[in-house]
Amino acid sequence: MNGIVLALGGGGVRGSAHMALLDVLSEANIPIAGLAGSSAGALAAALYAFGIRVHHSELGEWLKDPELERLQKNGAIHQVSRLVDFIRRPYLAEGVKIRQGYRALFGERRIEESPIPLVIQACDLTTGEAVMLRAGPVAEALAASSAVPSIFPPVAWHGRLLIDGDVAEKVPVTAAKALQAGPVVAVDVSNRVIPSEPRTALEAALQAGEASRRRLLSIALSQADLVIALEADPPIETFDYTKAQRAYELGRQRAEAALPRIKELLFRPVPSRKPWWSRFAQLKPQAPKSSPVSHTTQGQKQHHS
């Protein structure tokens, strides 16, 4: 009984549900053998991995950004000004307060120092591939993993521009499986999907993009051993920190309901596997003798990020 591996997805304030899950697992003495997180899930994973205990209701004070509060205001004049910002600016918020919060929480801690194997997932803005961050400053990795396109600027990381890990895979099941540490429990904190007919061309384009992301999400979740879905209804807005308690309570309900199945996973026989990096050596092509060009697989790029 080595433990389970958690794949924690993004969702802003709905990430409080991850905190609830981790509390339930701790109370039930469920061992955690590895953690992979994206965006809000990366924050929850890193806090747990490093043993940093912050009450879910306090996270808003650490990470609340005045720029985001301004973006959420209602009113016709404000909506028009926001639309102008979308057209004229590359992003709507600098994210300074959030990055300061990450640094205050984690200081100089580095991912590779984590007592529990930890992956923080981001996405390469140029290629769209998932980037599994296994080394480097935790605070900077979290800033990259939560850099929502159009909201926050991308983060420069060793020659790459990184954005929110949800763009590549909303729940980082692939990263969790790469740890090869145990059965994977995927936690999706998305709102419940309510079908609606688009009223404008912009809404139609946004809904089409969201439908594509949901399809990719379903493919990723199918690879997990167990999926816990929040399915908040009515929806909890991504940056509405007043709903943190509701997200936590709902997350706790979902976690307690899933606890019997999680315990079953602990005693399921796990086949012996080769180290996860070994398969990349098998896939490395042989360069022609006349060519000095070397080849690198996608997996190797992720391994060295």
Automatic annotation (TrEMBL):
Q: Share an example GO biological-process annotation for this protein.
A: lipid catabolic process
- Give the start-end ranges of region Disordered: 283-305
Q: Which residues form the PNPLA domain?
A: 6-177
Alphabetized GO MF terms: hydrolase activity
Composition bias of kind Polar residues appears in: 288-305
What keywords were assigned to this record? Hydrolase, Lipid degradation, Lipid metabolism
Q: Where is this motif: GXGXXG?
A: 10-15
Q: Name one Pfam family in it.
A: Patatin
Active-site residues, as the UniProt record annotates them:
S39, D164
Indicate which residues form the motif GXSXG.
Answer: 37-41
- What is the protein's name according to its record? Putative NTE family protein
